Amino acid sequence: MASTWILRTFGVLVVMACSVDAQLSTRFYNTRCPNVTARVGEIIRGHIRRDRTMAPALLRLHFHDCFVRGCDASVLLNNPSGGRGEKEATGNKFSIRGFEIIDDVKAKIEAMCPGVVSCADILALSARDAMRAFGGIDWAVPLGRRDGTITSAAEANRDLPPPFANFNTLSAIFRRKGLSVKDMVILSGAHTVGLTRCASMQTRLYNFSPTSPTDPSIDPAFAASLKRECKRGDNNTLIRNDPTKPTDTWDPNYYSNVLRSKSLFISDDAMKRSPEARKIVLTQNQPGSPFSKEFARAVEKMGRIGVLTGRQGQIRQRCSRGN
Ligand code: HEM
Q1: Cβ(319)–Cβ(78) under 8 Å?
Q2: Where on this chain does substrate bind (predicted)?
């Protein structure tokens, strides 16, 4: 009796472990393209050496891929004929960067292992390797994603979080993707690095409401310094997501900025507007912050959203179009 129970329980555990492993695995290309991870790392290091600002850009590209139709490289597809693709969505147009780097990596990997490595895996690896080269953060990238064939601006407009969203809207968007409030607060910490166009700041600085043209929840001295960098009507100048530090470095400073009302977006400010989220912000802002460790866990989880595996989808030959 007891032995049957043990066998059954053990059997269930083995099946569970296999089903997790069968999804994605760091060993996925070990026999089919053994050098893929090393080669992607090498190519990406070259790109980041030439332009360090592309590392946060690739991390954002991975995030925007995963939130729309799962991590299936749909963000890389050019517009379908007669329709508008994800590249045309409000949250992507004029601001998402890094497509040419992914195309370069894909071309070199195709030359090495034709038809084997998906664009979705190349994007996930490139984001990690870019941030590894940027410095201060690293995470595991289990592989085996396959590529989708559909891209839609309407879906991206629905699924990507807007910078003016409040806590409830944001947590609902993340929940729909299987991510918790904690995942959301930790992943938002990516805004400790990277660039923003002044376009994204115009409303908060100059057009907030009829009675208060500048958002009163921004620290007044910080708002004044932002206005010096982003003049009214300037949609093009790039400013740093964290302009409070001398160089763009990976650190928990985002959380200090949120608490001091020195973050760029209403969505960042929202991270302290619920007791649950605020507690997480306070923990990240302590000495010996667990931020990087937590981020590694959360971004790996993000990389599993809605993945196509096995016989689903395809391995695109070119990332910008279906086969
Ligand atoms: C919580 C909801 C979020 C909102 C509303 C949001 C919004 C934005 C906006 C508006 C920009 C500036 C775009 C521009 O003006 O060019 C930006 C930049 C950026 N975001 Fe987010 N974001 C969110 C979450 C995330 C997450 C989860 C990640 C990554 C895990 C991320 C990573 C980045 C990075 C790295 C940049 C800089 C990109 C670059 O340098 O090109 N964001 N975000």
Answers
A1: no
A2: 161
How far apart (Å, rounded) are the C-alpha atoms in residues 255 and 253? 5
Six-digit token string for 268: 């960042």
**pLDDT, mean over the chain:** 93
Nearest-atom number in ligand 1 for the CA of 164 is 5
Rounded Cα–Cα distance for residues 165 and 173 (Å): 10
Which helix H or strand E contains 240, and what residues bound it?
A: strand 238-240
**Is residue 195 in contact with ligand 1, taking CB distance under 6 Å?**
yes
Does residue 7 have a pLDDT over 50? no
For domain 30-160, give its CATH number from 3.40.50.410, 1.10.520.10, 1.10.443.10, 1.10.150.20. 1.10.520.10
Atom of ligand 1 nearest to the CA of 197: 15
| CATH code matching the domain that covers 167-301, chosen among 3.30.70.120, 1.10.420.10, 2.130.10.10, 3.30.70.20 | 1.10.420.10
How much is the average pLDDT of 220-242? 98
The answer to whether the CB of 114 falls within 8 A of the CB of 86 is no
56 CB under 6 A from ligand 1?
A: yes
Whether 80 shows a pLDDT value over 90: the answer reads no
Mutating to test ligand 1, I would choose from 53, 63, 101, 175 the residue with most ligand atoms within 8 A of its C-beta, which is: 63
Residue ranges, CATH 1.10.520.10, the chain: 30-160
Q: Active-site residue 47, yes or no? A: no
Atom of ligand 1 nearest to the CA of 298: 30
